[in-house]
UniProtKB/TrEMBL annotation:
Record-stated family: Belongs to the peptidase M18 family.
Keyword Glycosyltransferase (UniProt): no
Top-level enzyme category: hydrolase
EC annotation from Swiss-Prot or TrEMBL: 3.4.11.-
Pfam families: Peptidase_M18
Coiled-coil spans in chain: none
GO-annotated molecular function: aminopeptidase activity
InterPro entries to which the protein is assigned, alphabetical: Peptidase_M18, Peptidase_M18_dom2
Lineage: Bacteria, Bacillati, Actinomycetota, Actinomycetes, Glycomycetales
UniProt keyword list: Aminopeptidase, Hydrolase, Metal-binding, Metalloprotease, Protease, Zinc
Organism: Glycomyces tritici
Protein's UniProt name: M18 family aminopeptidase
Xref: NCBIfam families: PRK02813.1
Names of the cofactor(s): Zn(2+)
Amino acid sequence: MPRFDRSHTDDLAAFIKASPTPHHACAEAGRRLEAAGFQRLDEAAAWPEEWPLTETKSSGYYTVRDGSIIAWRVDGRDFDGFRIFGAHTDTPTFKVKPRPDTGAAGWKQIAVEVYGGVPHQTWLDRDLSVAGRLVMRDGSEVLVHVDRPLLRIPRLAIHLDRGANEGQKLNAQSQLTPIWGLGEPRDGEFLEFIAAEAGVDAADVFGHDLFAVALDEPAYLGKDEELFAAWRLDNLTSTHAGIAAIIAADETDDVPVLASFNYEEVGSMTYSGAQSPFLESVLRRIIGGVDDRYERYAQVIAASAMMSSDTGNAIHPNYPEKHEPGHRPIPGKGPMIKVSANQRYASGAEEQALFRRSAEAAGIPWQTYVNRNDIPGGTTIGPISGTQLGMLTVDVGLPILSMHSARELCGAEDPGLLADLALGLFTH
């Protein structure tokens, strides 16, 4: 049986199940924030000129833009700076093409495009579904999630590929097309089906963002249930941790902010991603004022800090030579600070001190991650947002195995420790 309180990880499992796409993640995050008393603000509407002062706790707000969400608490008093916990809402998967109906040899198939760094083999022979959003004729948005087996990318039988266990490179255009039925494809059939699932008229659907969804249930693994497996650990663990922390952070000197962006897995170069002005626009509006107030904004940013939280690679027991020998993070030992001399992660000496103060305030264990010199690894929103804002930024995250797979693995206790770290950032 588990040796820790797994209530946070149980709640993470529920959050993952409710959040198959970035748009669903924002909707679920908004639902949880509103249940905690947060108010949604429309970017196109006027925001309060002064934030209300309450006697019991700070007021909470949030806003959403195209699969990205920013939430904050403010109590009406003057503040010195922001404490921002950054994450992302998207995950490598397959995105449905604008004209999805295709097929061959008597099979109906769905045309998809690879989204992000997908390890192809992990998606073969799995029961998959579809989820996403439909944008209607009038500009409204409808979320849809077909929560049952619908698609499959079939593997070529080993009898027809005797070298299958020697490694196989799959062609993303011709060998990763899911099947969903038998017969001749008919143009418009798939979108008619999705529209019916969403309860809308297909003729009124003027745009769609639809994605393949892994259906495996989140689960605990091991004799002592000390491991946790699910799709979208990268990076819903961080988004969920930030939600939990900002709901709990009702007494802080600085303004706590959660910023979780869409499109991180494809470079963040969108109007709602980490390279966009979205976060800066929100921060300026929180500061407020009828004029530009650049001097005040510059002062607040100089006194602010951001913690970019994303998953990182735990040491793999079957491939230890792929890891930096002096830094070998494993599940169950707490969040990592991610360090890169070339700034693929935003973590210098000041940033390391910020991380350690936050971990100390949270009373949690922590680890350090560094890439091998000959394996550059990935990057995060940290360097992007830190550069966009000119703000002190540190990169952190949970150690996981099978990153970007359709089924990732982490320590079962680690998601709760990450939420503690976020709260430590907000309150120390």
